[in-house]
Amino acid sequence: MTTFHIFTRRGLLASALLALASLTAQTAASAAEIRVITSGAFTEAYKKLVPIYEAASGHKVISAFGASVGNAPDSIPSRFARGEKFDLVILSEGGLEALMKEGKLVPGSRVDLARSQIGVAVRKGTPIPDISTVAALKQTLLNAKSVAYSASASGTYLSTEMFPKLGIAEQMQKTAKKIMSERVGAVVARGEAELGFQQVSELIYFKELDFVGTLPDAVQQTIFFSSALVKGAEQQEAAQHLVRFFNSPAVADIVRSTGLDPANK
Q1: Are 175 and 194 contacting, i.e. CB atoms less than 8 angstroms apart?
Q2: DSSP annotation of 140
Q3: pLDDT value of residue 5
Q4: Is the dihedral angle over the CA atoms 2, 252, 42, 177 positive or is it negative?
Q5: Among 3.40.470.10, 3.40.190.10, 3.40.640.10, 3.40.1550.10, what is the CATH number of 118-219?
Q6: What is the dihedral of CA 163, 169, 175, 181, to 10 degrees?
Q7: pLDDT (average), residues 118-139
Q8: What is the pLDDT of residue 209?
Q9: Residues 224-239, mean pLDDT to the nearest whole number
Q10: Fewest C-beta atoms under 10 Å: which of 77, 163, 219, 234?
């Protein structure tokens, strides 16, 4: 690691700690255990920020992870359906609004944390496909023998909107596979799919992959990942404090470093 990167990381950490010190002065003195479940796109940012928060605030964050949508056993909707208890949920805007309509979340408590885009990756050492235009993306998809996409928000968009829009839905039924309960990058890294599509923040950390880029603007889907309080949560005040930290401008560079665009600029 270069001296520049060391000082950059220290600078980001110092800014985050200063932001948290300011927030901590406004919160209750007693420590709390905050139960949080987050979906994949915000996971890397979450994992970087939570240890900083815990160290400075004295609160303990109990974490769970799952897809924003879908019926996989570990998806967020499935966990709520089983009656699992959380104080705070972080997921795609569509998934959040669905839970809100079901009465699972506190009305008016939504806070947008980050924007995410869909990216493409291939296994390192394999040819880099052309996705620079919509026409090139379509041909790349038709040429691929196997395609992997997420079972969460991005995959729902691809299978129900983008593939039909490109006129290749029928072909994709033969070569594309929805990946349940693991990241698409892991499947591509094992050589089980030529192309992988998922939120950028979920692809860029695989050293076994080459990140190709994001979808062309004409077919891109930008998704907000947002937090909301869970109805009946025991630690609503502490959960709100954690959200203010996640949404602080002082931690925006940390969020950005994980492939997301902070919602609070």
Answers
A1: no
A2: H
A3: 41
A4: negative
A5: 3.40.190.10
A6: 60
A7: 97
A8: 97
A9: 96
A10: 234
* 25: confidence class by pLDDT, cuts 50, 70, 90: very low
- Are 64 and 114 in contact, with CB atoms under 8 Å apart? no
What string of DSSP letters covers 49-117? HHHHHHHHH--EEEEEE--SSS--TTSHHHHHHTT---SEEEEEHHHHHHHHHTT-B-TT--EEEEEE-
* Sequence-separated contacts (24+) of 203-207 with Cβ below 8 Å: 203/119, 203/120, 203/121, 203/259, 204/119, 204/258, 204/259, 205/44, 206/121, 207/124
Q: Distance of CA 106 to CAs 66, 95, 96, 202, Å?
A: 20, 14, 11, 28
Evaluate whether 213 touches 57 at the Cβ level (below 8 Å). no
Question: Between 163 and 22, whose confidence is greater?
Answer: 163
94-111 confidence digits (pLDDT tens): 999 999 999 999 999 999
* CA dist 115 → 13, 112, 144, 263 (Å): 22, 8, 29, 6
d(CA 166, CA 138): 7
The confidence score (pLDDT) of residue 261 equals: 94
Place of tokens 């220290």: 10
**Which of the four pLDDT bands, split at 50, 70 and 90, describes residue 40?**
confident
